[in-house]
Amino acid sequence: MSIIGEDSNSSNPLYAVDAERATLGAALLSADAAADIADIVTADDFTTAAHTGIFTAITALTTAGQPVDPVTVLSYLNTTGVLDRIGGAATVHTLVAATPSPASGTYYAEHVRDAALRRRIQAAGAKIQQLAASAGSEPALIADTAEHELLNATETRAHTTYTALADLLDPTIELIESNATKTVTGPIPPYHDLRTIIPELLPGQLIVIAARPSIGKSTIALDFVRHSAARNVPTALFSLEMSAQEIMTRYMSAESGTPMPRLLSGQLNDNDWEKVSSTVTASRSRPLYIDDSPNLSLMEIRSKSRRLKQRHNIKLLVVDYLQLMDTGLTRSMANRQEEVAFFSRSLKLLGKELDIPIIALSQLNRGPEQRQDKRPMISDMRESGSIEQDADVIMLLHREDFYDRTARPGELDVIVAKHRNGATGTTSVVFQGHLSRAVDMTTYVPNAT
Asked: Where on the phi/psi map is residue 200: left (φ > 0), alpha (ψ -120 to 50), or beta?
């Protein structure tokens, strides 16, 4: 047997068998070392069945709060029927005898982890190479898969995919108790009354905001974006309809309370300039990232979102809007309904992958205009079947004064038509189109500019 720390296959950085022995020996000699090592490597990081089996026994004992030493590990291996498969008790005793001190256990564990990471990257590369060589593979899908595979490969910790009910009960009670006093740090709706229905936007949720053209869905979406950024929640906006300059003009109008016509004409008085200047100062440090790239495809949105998550840890993503998206694939889908289903499902999966809520805007068809009651319904969404299925929350926007100027002028209804984790209902806000924003009824001051 080679000396611990001098890998017999050190010329191959993909393998660190001697480091694996040193890691396991340290864990067997010290429960503290075992706990520290368990924070660095997983059973999948080891290259032999014997090493994997021994480490599995060590982590099982550690998790159960039982002592970790050669006797308890051998007992566990024998009880679970693994002892003979790893070479018997001699294998465990050899590891202990060859380890002079457990103090360097974490050092060797890092070598084991790094070698395992190299192997995962190599495996991802082989898969990508095989996919690229396949004549029937879409180049855009190859690029997306490649990025996804490499991101998965660089995850240095494996995540358990199942948990026993008994292990979930106490944390669940603690979560319920903490909800009463917790401070929400993630994205929340910008309107007070809406927060009584949707207290916060949860990671992995797909939230759809739908309306007929010119009702105000981009304005409402910008309110979500502004509100999150002002609360220091990193937010990304992909705009397929408006340029970044147009978005920023609306942002300045909404934040400063300066009417859009005056901003667009440049005819600002001293008070206007003072409010604009204050808005600029307050906004410089806000974590908002805007992408108005022309012809942005779904594949590009996914790729850019992953990079934004890595670099800026975004907590909210907004896409304006669903029907303007392109698949990014060279092959065409059978129909538009199939494409929209692809978009909504992909955004739902992206939100779960990045662990963030995603807001997607969507247009309604002409259904409301053909009814006496103009209030929208979920069935009015274009290609609505897949969107309704994938969305966790659907908010429909309605303004009676859009159809009759004398009916409830300046009011916009936010209809929560679907809420997978809570109640549905309708709230109303004051729509200030000239300021590119909506505000709470309770804080509205008539004739304010």
From this structure: beta
> Average pLDDT of 335-355?
83
Tell me how far apart the 2 most distant CA atoms of the chain are, in Å: 90
Is residue 297 a contact partner of residue 327, using CB atoms and an 8 Å limit?
A: yes
The reported pLDDT for the residue numbered 368 is 82
Cβ 372 vs Cβ 362: under 8 Å: no
Q: Which fold has domain 1-182?
A: DNAb Helicase; Chain A (1.10.860)
Q: Which residues contact 389 (CB under 8 A, 6 or more apart)?
A: 344
**What is the pLDDT averaged over residues 332-356?**
80
Least Cα distance to 235 among 209, 263, 201, 266 occurs for 201
Other C-beta atoms closer than 10 Å to the C-beta of 268 total 16
pLDDT of 291-340, one tens digit each? 988 777 787 888 889 889 988 999 999 998 777 777 655 456 656 677 77
* Residue listed under structure tokens 């679970």: 80
Instruction: Give yes or no for residue 445 having a pLDDT over 50.
Output: yes
Q: Please state, rounded to an integer, the average pLDDT across all residues of the chain.
A: 84
We find that the CATH architecture of domain 185-443 is 3-Layer(aba) Sandwich (3.40)
Mean pLDDT of 66-82: 87
Structure tokens at 323: 């029907």
- Whether the CB-CB separation of 168 and 396 falls below 8 Å is answered with no
Instruction: Please state, in angstroms and rounded to a whole number, the distance separating the CA atoms of residues 60 and 181.
Output: 35
- Whether cis (ω within 30° of 0) applies to the bond prior to 321 is yes
What CA–CA distance (Å, rounded) separates 254 from 108? 56
- 2 pLDDT tier (thresholds 50, 70, 90): very low
What's the rounded Cα separation, in Å, for the pair 394 and 91?
59
Q: Where are the domains of the chain?
A: 1-182, 185-443
Please state which of the ranges 37-51, 97-111, 135-149, 206-220 shows the lowest mean pLDDT.
135-149
What is the CB-side half-sphere exposure of residue 220 using CA atoms within 13 A?
A: 33
Transcribe 349-400 into DSSP letters.
Answer: HHHHHHTS-EEEEEEB-SGGGGSSS----GGGBTTHHHHHHH-SEEEEEE-H
Cα 163 to Cα 344: distance, rounded to the nearest angstrom? 29
Q: Which two tokens stand for residue 325?
A: 């998206």
- pLDDT at site 173: 82
Residue 44 Cα distances to 65, 158, 164, angstroms: 22, 8, 21
- Residue 398 CA to residue 412 CA, distance in Å, equals 6
How much is the pTM? Answer: 0.66
